[in-house]
Amino acid sequence: MPIAIEAVEEAFRQLGSGHAENLPRRRLHSAKGMLHLMAASLPSCGYFGYKTYTVFPGQVRFTVCLHSAENGDLLALIEAGRLGQIRTGAASAVATRWMARVDTKVVGIIGAGWQARSQAEAVCQVRPVNQVLVYSRSPERLAQFCKETQERLGIVCHAAKSAEEVAEAADILVTITNSTSPVFKGERLKPGTHINAAGSNFLIKRELDETCIRRCRSIVVDSKEQARLECGEFLAPLEKGRLTWDQIRELSEVVTARSLPRTDPKDITLFKSLGVALEDVAVAAKVYQLAREQKVGKMMEYGGGSER
To answer: pTM for the complete prediction?
Structure first.
């Protein structure tokens, strides 16, 4: 996770300085499932690539293809389920590093699924957290999450009785669900909270209500272009004129210090994470480099017999 956090932050720094490019996700539909495509370029680091994944009933498959930015060679073909989990957590950590108060102690998480694990791990890397409070609608999943998180991170992890309990207590609040309706009431947030909303990336889904959006002094996304296509939380406030795209900043602007997300300890700040290809390519490059150094993976012939 520390490697991924630094890789993702540097990628957004390159994007903010004009030395990287990100293409928003596109989705193709069949009668039974979907194919998702997303691409990014980090030429200053020597790489570009793309991620594809298919979603069908009972199975999701992720793949990243990493290419050389020098000559176009295909360098690596990477199964990217775990990679995607880590990079999603890393993006939240980067946003937390730049947007959350430095004295935060309590992380609240709504959702206890697969992605929630990397969210907890990542945020605890960048702030002096001493307690994790979690809520899930599944008691069994919630109990297992608390047990695993406490053992893995060495930080007290408690189960909450409701999402509102989490929202009221959290200094850093993570929402990581697939909900189509808000998972807590925005008026429950205490001043100074930082939110990482990382669960939804479809216009029909939203984890945050209009009150929450209205109370946020600063709203940051990983990609405004992708947010226009995928961010359900912004639809109603935009249509009602209570939010404009000019009020929304990108994470690349924050890490290059062109936008200051917090000016007062009482500010409520929001990072809306949709998940972009830039993060996948940045972390895939690190995976490739480590694989070569540690001599793991399978060498394959490709493109006229050259080994990759």
So the answer is: 0.95
Q: How many CB atoms lie within 10 A of CB 21?
A: 15
- Please answer whether residues 176 and 109 qualify as being in contact, where contact means their C-beta atoms are separated by less than 8 angstroms: yes
The catalytic residue positions are 51
Residues 191 and 126 grouped into a single domain: yes
Question: CATH number for the domain including 20?
Answer: 3.30.1780.10
| 214: CATH | 3.40.50.720
Paired residues of 219 in beta bridges: 248, 270
Specify whether 228 is located in the same domain as 209. yes
Q: Given this model, what pLDDT does residue 124 score?
A: 97
The string of pLDDT tens digits covering residues 92-146 is 999 999 999 999 999 999 999 999 999 999 999 999 999 999 999 999 999 999 9
Whether residue 96 is found in the same domain as residue 225: yes
Closest CA to 88 of 176, 193, 220: 176
CB 224 within 8 A of CB 248: yes
165 and 243, same domain (yes or no): yes
Cβ contact 234:206 at 8 Å: no
Q: How many CB atoms lie within 10 A of CB 96?
A: 28
